[in-house]
Inverse folding.
């Protein structure tokens, strides 16, 4: 009995020593003076960003996180809010947080039991993921928060990548990533934007790797700066063999990864008998495969709606086609699978494509097979073409992908495995908006405008969403917020769609009355010939530009305007025609006065590209000359 007590006391002492050592390390970090270089221009400093990943087996990993932030002002208060997630595959073993004042003295503390717990679910959201939340508040700056968390994940499929924590106004003192794997297990690594070698420790049955990065300053707040993902070091981590909810897979190659994905879909593309009959009624009399695809896509859009679902096998496995047919809803993977099933019934092969969805496409690493997707779309190869279908949309035409999934890589999945594919790129000639405007100016400077504009491809994406997802009142509010005019009223507006061509076109008509558009002083009228497209972009002087510039999309704007002015005025001065041709874009204006009519032409080609900081001066000159041209007025003087 005494021997057991002795062993127990020894264990308690060891745990106490570990705790005190950890506490001492935390206090040393917090009390250590932060270098001026890390506080300059910062709202917060990440003192420590630490991730430890321990791979136990293909079906089990342990992830430990530790974050220490020193909050310098109220703009970084959100860092005092901590959210921990867990679900059926991830068990939250431990979570805690501590608040320290400027002297490093503990002020507040929470544990797992103190946190609010709620499901990540809403009216249009089904999920088995749960959240735990706790928020620190403190009104004396600077102060420091520390958070610790441990999760046990029932699969090696999701191995956290190493992304050193740094945002626009937060510098980084130390980021550390530790990976521990069994000696016989192969894990795959890919360092991006750097060559940081790990410290490697080998034991009998285990290998541990440790990477560190220190002292990263605040990211400069510069216009059109390239994202940190393009210059900050980060590391992708992926397994070879893994298990996920009873499914075994391997991600050594894209083909192998596709085989795993296909196993999650296998047998889930069977339609109910009554729907099969309906599908044949809709399509049997049609020979053209493109028309068949369009008819079935229209059926999908009119008979289902999108609901975000993160339930089941890591949010990867779709509900089967019969479920979607019965319930009339599904998430991206369920709706894409349903579309594949509809096509299969008429002898057309469609395939799910795992892709990153978002207006800001994530850099896809093609030479490192790994989980790099958050969305599923459908690809239908036809002859030498591919018809792309965004199955979560109830309004996009078949064959068109918006900026949400255009111009990026994805993994197309079939029974043979996975194949990398690239979605369509919409170029300058595609993304075109053309405006024809007629306006009449009265003697008091008020302007009556009638405008007709067509928006093609990406140029119309925002309006396409606006007219399908919002009421007339919200559409009107959008126009009021986005027209660069003085006091005005929108008398009427209307939108219509033309999906008959390869790319969609949205037509807009506006009838607007603008009060005091022209400035009248004495016998002169000052008027801007560029009414609705005047540039609002003016680049500041910056002789110490640090980051590359990046323009992500390319588009063309063409405006033809005719403005009628009162008849008893003559031209006194007008802006010169302009032509600017650079690698950043092309800008042209042409203005003539015919009688009492101003005829004004403006075209602007915005080109995409990435440019080094030493070109900032040229970029600034190009865009600032456009700004000046767009705001140069015509002066008319009254006769006699």
């Amino acid at each position: 009995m005494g021997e057991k007590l002795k062993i127990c006391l020894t264990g308690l002492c060891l745990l106490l020593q570990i705790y005190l050592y950890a506490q001492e390390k935390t206090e040393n970090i917090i009390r250590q003076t932060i270098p001026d270089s890390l506080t300059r221009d910062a709202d917060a400093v990440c003192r420590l960003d630490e991730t430890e990943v321990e791979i136990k087996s293909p079906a089990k990993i342990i992830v430990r996180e530790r974050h220490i932030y020193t909050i310098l002002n109220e703009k970084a208060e959100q860092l005092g809010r901590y959210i921990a997630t867990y679900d059926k595959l991830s068990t939250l073993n431990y979570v805690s947080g501590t608040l320290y004042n400027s002297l490093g003295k503990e002020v507040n503390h929470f544990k797992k039991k103190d946190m609010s717990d709620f499901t990540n679910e809403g009216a249009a959201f089904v999920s088995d993921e749960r959240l735990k939340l706790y928020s620190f508040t403190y009104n004396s700056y600077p102060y420091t928060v520390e958070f610790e968390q441990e999760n046990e994940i029932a699969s090696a499929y999701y191995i956290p990548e190493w992304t050193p924590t740094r945002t626009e106004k937060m510098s980084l003192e130390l980021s550390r990533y530790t990976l521990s794997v069994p000696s016989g297990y192969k894990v795959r690594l890919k360092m991006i934007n750097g060559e940081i070698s790990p410290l490697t420790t080998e034991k009998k049955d285990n290998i541990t790797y440790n990477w560190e990065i220190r002292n990263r300053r605040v990211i400069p707040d510069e216009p059109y700066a390239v994202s940190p993902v393009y210059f900050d070091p980060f590391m992708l981590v992926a397994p070879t063999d893994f298990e996920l909810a009873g499914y075994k897979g391997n991600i050594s190659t894209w083909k192998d990864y596709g085989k795993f994905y296909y196993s999650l879909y296998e047998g889930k593309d069977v339609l109910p008998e009554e729907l099969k009959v309906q599908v044949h009624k809709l399509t049997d009399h049609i020979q053209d495969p493109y028309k068949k695809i369009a008819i079935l896509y229209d059926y999908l859009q009119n008979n289902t709606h999108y609901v975000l679902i993160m339930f089941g096998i890591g949010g990867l496995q779709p509900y089967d086609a019969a479920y979607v047919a019965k319930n009339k809803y599904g998430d991206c993977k369920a709706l894409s699978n349903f579309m594949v099933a509809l096509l299969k019934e008429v002898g057309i092969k469609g395939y799910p494509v795992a892709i990153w969805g978002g207006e800001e496409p994530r850099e896809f690493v093609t030479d490192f097979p790994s989980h790099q997707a958050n969305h599923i779309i459908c690809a239908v190869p036809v002859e030498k073409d591919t018809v792309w279908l965004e199955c979560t949309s109830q309004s996009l035409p078949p064959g068109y992908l918006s900026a949400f999934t255009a111009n990026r890589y994805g993994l197309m999945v079939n029974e043979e495995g996975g194949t990398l594919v690239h979605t369509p790129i919409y170029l300058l000639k595609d993304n075109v908006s053309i405006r024809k405007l007629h306006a009449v100016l009265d003697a008091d400077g008020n302007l009556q405008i009638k405008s007709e504009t067509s928006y093609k491809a990406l140029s119309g994406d925002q309006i396409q969403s606006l007219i399908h997802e919002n009421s007339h009142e919200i559409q009107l509010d959008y126009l009021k917020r986005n027209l660069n005019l003085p006091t005005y009223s929108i008398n009427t507006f209307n939108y219509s769609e033309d999906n008959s061509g390869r790319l969609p076109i949205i037509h807009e008509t506006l009838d607007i009355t603008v009060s005091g558009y022209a400035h009248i002083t004495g016998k002169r009228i000052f008027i801007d010939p560029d009414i609705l497209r005047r540039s609002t972009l003016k680049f500041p002087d910056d002789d110490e530009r640090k980051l590359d510039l990046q323009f992500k999309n390319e588009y063309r704007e063409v405006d033809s305007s005719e403005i009628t002015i009162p008849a008893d005025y003559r031209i006194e001065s007008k802006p010169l025609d302009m032509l600017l041709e650079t690698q950043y874009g092309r800008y042209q204006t042409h203005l003539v006065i015919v009688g009492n009519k101003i005829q004004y032409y403006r075209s602007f080609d915005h080109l995409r590209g990435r440019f080094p900081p030493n070109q900032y001066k040229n970029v600034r000159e190009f865009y600032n000359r456009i700004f000046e041209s767009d705001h140069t007025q015509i002066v008319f003087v009254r006769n006699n």
